[in-house]
Amino acid sequence: MKTKPRDVLQRLVDVMRGPIIPTSEKTSKKLYSRLTTGVMFICIISVQEEKATIQILCNDKSSLDLMIKELKIKTNNLSK
């Protein structure tokens, strides 16, 4: 099944529960999320033709590992 880049982006927004940071870049979007514990995430999704690349930045390694695991689960469900 082919997944539209917009659907992938929406899933990431749902997972992170964060707003999209406005940018002038048309092929990528940035999401920002900050937890009450002070942990911050920035997720950058770039779309080029039929390929999406996701980069996650975080100030806490254990939270980053959990987010990566969650994103893998959610994005794998998109292809089913």
Considering the chains and any ligands shown, give keywords for the structure.
80 residues; alpha+beta; Double Stranded RNA Binding Domain; 38% helix
Description:
- The chain has one domain (5-78): Double Stranded RNA Binding Domain, CATH 3.30.160.
- Helices cover 38% and strands 32% of the residues.
- The chain is built from two helices and four strands, in the order αββββα.
- The protein has a four-stranded antiparallel sheet with strand order 1-2-3-4.
- A hairpin with a 6-residue loop joins strand 1 (20-21) and strand 2 (28-34).
- The longest helix is centred in the last third of the chain and has 18 residues, at 61-78.
- The radius of gyration is 12 Å and the shape is globular.
- The mean pLDDT is 80.
How would you concisely characterize the structure shown here?
The protein has 2 helices and 4 strands; from the N terminus they run αββββα.
What's the SSE blueprint?
Layout: H1 5-16, E1 20-21, E2 28-34, E3 40-48, E4 51-58, H2 61-78
Antiparallel strand pairs: 1-2, 2-3, 3-4
Helix pairs in contact: 1-2
